[in-house]
Amino acid sequence: MPRYVLTIRCQDQPGIVLATAQAIVEAGGNIVESDQFSDPVTGLFCMRTCFDSRTDPAERLSSNLARFDATIGLRPVERRHRIMVMASKLDHCLADLIYRHQLGELPVEIPLIVSNHPDLEPLAARHGIRFAKLEATPSNREEVGRELAALIEENAIDDVVLARYMQILSPEVCARYPGRIINIHHSFLPGFKGAKPYHQAYAHGVKLIGATAHYVTAELDEGPIIAQDVEPVTHATGPEELIAIGRDIERSVLARAVRLHAEDRVVLAGRRTIVFAP
Amino acid sequence: MPRYVLTIRCQDQPGIVLATAQAIVEAGGNIVESDQFSDPVTGLFCMRTCFDSRTDPAERLSSNLARFDATIGLRPVERRHRIMVMASKLDHCLADLIYRHQLGELPVEIPLIVSNHPDLEPLAARHGIRFAKLEATPSNREEVGRELAALIEENAIDDVVLARYMQILSPEVCARYPGRIINIHHSFLPGFKGAKPYHQAYAHGVKLIGATAHYVTAELDEGPIIAQDVEPVTHATGPEELIAIGRDIERSVLARAVRLHAEDRVVLAGRRTIVFAP
Amino acid sequence: MPRYVLTIRCQDQPGIVLATAQAIVEAGGNIVESDQFSDPVTGLFCMRTCFDSRTDPAERLSSNLARFDATIGLRPVERRHRIMVMASKLDHCLADLIYRHQLGELPVEIPLIVSNHPDLEPLAARHGIRFAKLEATPSNREEVGRELAALIEENAIDDVVLARYMQILSPEVCARYPGRIINIHHSFLPGFKGAKPYHQAYAHGVKLIGATAHYVTAELDEGPIIAQDVEPVTHATGPEELIAIGRDIERSVLARAVRLHAEDRVVLAGRRTIVFAP
Amino acid sequence: MPRYVLTIRCQDQPGIVLATAQAIVEAGGNIVESDQFSDPVTGLFCMRTCFDSRTDPAERLSSNLARFDATIGLRPVERRHRIMVMASKLDHCLADLIYRHQLGELPVEIPLIVSNHPDLEPLAARHGIRFAKLEATPSNREEVGRELAALIEENAIDDVVLARYMQILSPEVCARYPGRIINIHHSFLPGFKGAKPYHQAYAHGVKLIGATAHYVTAELDEGPIIAQDVEPVTHATGPEELIAIGRDIERSVLARAVRLHAEDRVVLAGRRTIVFAP
């Protein structure tokens, strides 16, 4: 029996769970996992249900849930998110995503790698992934934005993952794909925003450093947070060493965020995320 | 509207979520939180649902769920678990439970403290909690077991918490209250069982020490685990210091386990627990 | 043989370790623990040495180290830091410091508790600690500063610990006792400064919350960091729950910082600290 | 000026630090980092000193320290440990060591990879590392031991790293290279020894899983521990997922242990290690 992931998002009101369960049972389905949350800040009801079903319950769900004015997502688990990974020169996040994908840890497809530098092309080539080079500079952001949108459409990309991509995306691109672009920021936000966060952390003498994976919005390093982690450091941990420790945190936090997103476990709720962790 | 916590446990089969949602809607209820898990090891379906309802849905639930042969728990949130805390001489776990209870962190009632030593009586007295002293020795375990059972019945105790109680309970008591007696073991199980685990840890030169809260079974230090945590240590951390670090881990792990249990978030599934963490 | 803790701080230059070791050996001493660090940012050489010695090596050290223009601290371990704890209404940090002191975990003396509210007087009284109440408001900071200085001198106080004291100290007091006033800030600095950091954290949807113990300077929530820690949280962790989790982090981070300071393990180096952790 | 790492290990007695500091100063050296520990269990004095020196102080150190009957290690930092990595089929630990080596995180040379399977040869080839295949079975352990010893001698190998090598080494090899063979065990020792520890962990329902890097002794999975770490898991984390989480812990714990060892920060003291962490 095929397995489906269903996500529902609407204003909170009684009867949603019942209407959903009815549609699934009518379709001959059996729920294997279910999680829900009513957010007191936004008043949103969010639900993620995983079920096995002989028939596709899409129509039944639409009609049963019509009166709730809900945003419904229904995905057969075998149809995986197609992600486009963008990176500049540093390869630790990209290489880790590819490695986890190979091992079967990341249920995604990676048809395309995009960079503003040629350095990562051999890595892409070795794994048989198409590589596209962008001429991106701070002054041609809008043009690059149009190229990215074209690449996204042509390649049927679901999500963009910024795996240490060091250029800023145009506001148009950020606005066009809300909740579909994930960035890894090399700092424990809202700690050190902007450039060289590890050097900032060193100068401040912090005793923990971290990384944050978040959805990209037009506001730099400020989008809704998906995952964060930290590691302890000491006065003796110099900037180079902070960067090395940071690499480990970045790659694991980004991989976690991509996986949560690819399993449809993350729901946007204003400036926060609801994460239905496994 | 009163809030209820519903727990359901039965062999996995289609239709349980629907039958439950129907009963809640019929009673005029609205689900605020829900979590479920189908355990591949035992084949158990476990569910915890929190809902607000004007009327008590107990009868509707019983009849709707009758065909599933389920174990159903239904508790108005305002009726709190009544716990009896047992401790010997060390007071860090007991004092911490009382302190958290005062702050409103632990949704329980603590009507009774039981000990085999008089040392903790002043602490109980200061907080207006009844104190019962037991003459417990390794040789009168069965007699003590009967006294405990009597205290449990007389005081309408729901759960027993062993907060560094250093005597072993009789097999009869362990068998009589499955999933209702919580112990804190001062080791990262299955690491160091039995006596003096911190000294064992020191002799082994481990780099992490931990504590484990688990349900008590007749097998010593082997019951289903509810919560665990560890802290890093070094070669320079001597036995006394290990014990001090251990105190911090023990009290926080035990408090976490008691709270999870008191919120009906822990389900027994063979030798494992299903924990519906918030 | 009495045990001494020696701390040395000067511009880095060859020969300091040798001159120190000579003075200790000449005094009949035996080094039991030693740690040193040359800070590349400030060019400071910092050293902490613990040794047993029949005779007091103070004079030998002074003369041997004279040419290095060093700041020397020499303390017999049995002469403990005398700390004055300041708190407002919340008692979790204060109660924890007192509890750890009783258990022998904190090698300090606590002769005095100071508050701008009467709430904590019973706690002080129960442990036989003198309690002083201050009339502190945002408008009489300088006057309060003079009162504090008087209390510090009269009671031979070494260090002040702000254990959730909610008033701001005057710039004069901050400047007069550099590296001698420790504050617990209820946020992972440099995350959320100022008021209600847990509410800020909730609004931002962070996935980790933390606390920071730091030395107080005239700049609010910006002094050199001594210790930090974090705990994971989720979207479902509401503000009240964040505050409860925060209490646990605050009390453990503050206790760690006080202990490190009381064992002379923390050295100020510009806006950073060197921490010779055990 | 060349930098040296000096390690000293002998029975504890006064004057060792002074004799060492004198030798370094006489050679024109300047200490940049120093750490020492007197172990109460074994009575050992252990010291690690890092210093810059124009001339090689080996002779001065030998004569100055002669009366202490010390084991002295003196290594110019630029002469790196040469390690031979052994692995079977799983490549996550090996690939991670190679990647960190490339990034400059691991100050070692890796001239040789040894395996009992051909699977990892392409990985070795891609990085220009010699690959040797062993015919290792449980029945020819002694013969394999002789081959390994030959490879170690021919290639001037300092240390052997078992990066998920699934065969047991002969007792002769274990005894011949004490403190020179590092293994990663995929469990939080002393938790689950032997085969399939993640399946054991799942059956036990533990809430944390871990990995342990330790020196190899003739006793299986029992040698002195160098580094350990854990990650939280839940009832929903199935065996495959535990293995995936475990891969992350294993590779980071092994890398940490190899680096500590390669910087001469680990001293054997009976069944424990003294680790002079940076």
What does this structure look like?
4 copies of one chain form a homotetramer. With 278 residues, the first copy, chain A, is of the alpha/beta class. Chain A folds into 2 domains: 3-76, Alpha-Beta Plaits (2-Layer Sandwich), CATH 3.30.70.260; 81-275, Rossmann fold. Helix content of chain A is 32%, strand content 31%. The first copy, chain A, contains 8 helices and 13 strands. Chain A has helices at 16-26, 58-64, 92-103, 121-126, 141-154, 171-176, 197-204, 239-262, and strands spanning 3-11, 30-38, 44-52, 71-76, 81-87, 108-115, 130-133, 159-162, 181-185, 208-215, 225-232, 266-269, 272-275. A 7-stranded mixed β-sheet of chain A has the order 7-6-5-8-9-10-11. In chain A, helix 3 (92-103) packs across helix 8. Chain A is globular, with a radius of gyration of 20 Å. The mean pLDDT of chain A is 94. Chains in contact: A-B, A-C, A-D, B-C, B-D, C-D. At the A-C interface, strand 11 and strand 13 of A face strand 11 and strand 13 of C. Strand 2 (30-38) of chain C pairs antiparallel with strand 2 (30-38) of chain D, so a sheet runs across the interface.
